[in-house]
Amino acid sequence: MIHSDGFRALDRQECLRLLAKMPVGRVVYTRQALPAVLPVNFSLDTDSAVVLCTSAASDLVRAIDGVVVAFEADDFQAERRAGWSVVVTGRAAVVTDPAEHERLLRTGPRSWMPMHDGVFIRIEAEMVTGRELTGVPG
Amino acid sequence: MIHSDGFRALDRQECLRLLAKMPVGRVVYTRQALPAVLPVNFSLDTDSAVVLCTSAASDLVRAIDGVVVAFEADDFQAERRAGWSVVVTGRAAVVTDPAEHERLLRTGPRSWMPMHDGVFIRIEAEMVTGRELTGVPG
Question: What SUPFAM superfamilies does its record include (chains A, B) (predicted)?
Fold first, then answer.
């Protein structure tokens, strides 16, 4: 569907395919009653959950473990005035099962930041929405 | 200051200088009690407020006019495993003063989406934080 304002809604499969291409996305959550956002490395798990790796002692873990968050990734090209964005909304939870943790050590995301006490956080892909801006004349 | 986890905190001036380079950032807010995020074109006003242009009838206007939101922009390079992100947190408000609206029509941001009923929204730069990931060996 192309909207009159120049963007096209993406279906869930398109969204997940685009998400899988990006190394960095942004966790959107609430911290001390204020809206907060943090770029992080991520990967998609086999059930399409977003998986992050962060320090066990981080503010992020305290803020999002067990609560619903949004996760966004996008890719825009200024010269074409075009691009896409995808948002996953769902419950975030630290992976506590040792077998799951081991599996994600092999298959999960690698953080660009050195990490001594890394934990994995899964964000369930309960709601996946996206849109593509197809480029409009200046 | 360089943190042990590989990033450096940016001061307010560095943050604003980096922000000014980017054509797209992300508004972070709450919609129907859920965290929400939307990429938008923006510019910085002379007092460092973030200025967006959106449709007067948009969900975004209804959700953020008069409330505190976050605004994020970043730039990461996968090959260097490096980049920066900046977050502005402050009150958002639709520009209702006709003279201010006229001024922003000349100097404000241009949306990549065609806009028939555009209004400007200012986000006051009450809190500006940023960090730079300086690149670490793989």
Answer: FMN-binding split barrel
Sequence letter at residue A136? V
Average pLDDT over residues A52-78: 95
Rounded CA-CA distance A24/A91 in Å is 19
ipTM of the prediction: 0.92
Task: Place A69 in a pLDDT band, splitting at 50, 70 and 90.
Answer: very high
B68 reaches A (C-beta below 8 A) = yes
Q: What backbone phi and psi angles, to 5 degrees, belong to A92?
A: -100, 140
d(CA A68, CA B34): 7
Query: What pLDDT does B3 receive?
Result: 53
pLDDT (tens digit, 9 = 90+) per residue, B94-136?
Answer: 999 999 999 999 999 988 887 778 999 999 999 999 999 987 5
Interface residue of B28, B64, B124 to substitute, partner A, most A CBs within 10 Å: B28
A chain contacts of residue B72, beta-carbon cutoff 8 Å:
26, 37, 39
Q: Do B35 and A34 touch (CB under 8 A)?
A: no
